[in-house]
């Protein structure tokens, strides 16, 4: 609860005047805030609509039981925020007993991921296991606090466990949050800890709230609160006063902890802000915040030094793809920010080549041919039996991003690397959303997606090439006026992805047009560069699909550096059903772009919102993409 007056006196010098009760109160709150892990939640939290607020969750990571001894730490990720515990001793059974409070929104992220790392203080620590907790399920359990032992899953094989972890979770709903807010306030200002406020304690509280009008009416407000006339204000009386005044004339103008002005949004946001600021905790270690992903939280001191020296940046948005050292994307399934794995040396070389005039000069003086020859040689190498030995190393590099449990064939059945690269999946691994409704388009590939209503939007927010246009993308043979001002969606596949692409709409394949070209990388470092035109200069195959719900849809498969070939499995004149397998890319990263006629499709709101932030969305084949604007059928339910 803070220090009592007697302890304050013991710490002060004999001749020092005692600080006032109000000064002690503010000091207590500052200490409280300092120990709560940086305070990145309340001060910077976005406004939450009252109907969206589901509650505040207190998640405590207690301990784990691992298969081997090491120094471990754990991370908690929810949405675009990640928190981490301290590092344990060298043990097989680490104990952290660390907690964090997070906001739960009705339509916001609700799958909390807990990751356990073995420590490497110099560079990157290694992810050894993870589990996921559905906070909505916790809300349905009528328990004061729910404690559970959960299996830690192997990142490369989620059907395999590597240990167990004990967590506890308590979620207070909006009603409980409102009731407990007054309890938190009273507990901190209650100097003699008798569960009530005297007039002097009540006076200190009003002053801390920063409302001059309330300070001028302290005695009047005290009498108003003291409904039974016993000369003190208890918890229920304080709660009633705060609730009553909040509706009429709010008493609280400033947060007494961080000093931020309140009233910018509404009552519920003020209460959430102060609830997190006033967090009195349970005496456990508070997790450290300020991270976007668990990988960022896992980096050692060398990475932190490079950030401090401005050699690296770690952020979302346009510059994260061009100038930053890490590529961050939004995982649509879990609604959290994740980091794309890419070798640092490759990042530096791509920046040098694609983000400078010197690199442009090199591209124009022979690098195009070098990239093409290199890709052809690499394609042949990956088709050789000797390449199969690279499969285990590839799986180790991307062990938390490739789920071998959903792959159709066993790993030993792949005789070359390319056979593994174009691997098929088990039936049902990628369910197609609303498969019986042709008016709903679905995602064409496991990829990182950007969706734009027009070319102007795409060039403003993402594509920075000097000459990008729909006509340049499709070529004269496939281009039509109907597609000129259309909407477009970009599916960027990384090497670790499932590399078969699927049909996003139902219709008839009218034609295929092959367009020769370069093999630039499709990494955002190049796409965001003003010095090259990746999508209109790369080798690509354009397919035109005629549909009844969306009109003409152009499906463009674009090759990239290290892509051996683009293979289609359908022929001209074939009728294709939404979700059908359409083709595949051989080794390398690659991209699919779908162009819809103007006003033919309404992309899903979450995809558009992320694209407006220049933030790619990680999607899987079969997820919803958008609905036909020409469809007068039933309304599409929300993604949830």
UniProtKB/TrEMBL annotation:
Post-translational modification: Is synthesized initially as an inactive proenzyme. Formation of the active enzyme involves a self-maturation process in which the active site pyruvoyl group is generated from an internal serine residue via an autocatalytic post-translational modification. Two non-identical subunits are generated from the proenzyme in this reaction, and the pyruvate is formed at the N-terminus of the alpha chain, which is derived from the carboxyl end of the proenzyme.
InterPro entries: C2_dom (IPR000008), C2_domain_sf (IPR035892), EF-hand-dom_pair (IPR011992), EF_Hand_1_Ca_BS (IPR018247), EF_hand_dom (IPR002048), PS_Dcarbxylase (IPR003817), PSD-B (IPR033177), PSD_type2_pro (IPR033179)
PROSITE patterns: C2 (PS50004), EF_HAND_1 (PS00018), EF_HAND_2 (PS50222)
Family annotation (Gene3D superfamilies): C2 domain, EF-hand
Cofactor binding, note field: Binds 1 pyruvoyl group covalently per subunit.
Domain C2: 35-150
Domain notes: The C2 domains have an essential, but non-catalytic function. They may facilitate interactions with other proteins and are required for lipid transport function.
Protein name as annotated: Phosphatidylserine decarboxylase proenzyme 2
Organism of derivation: Urochloa decumbens
Underlying gene: PSD2
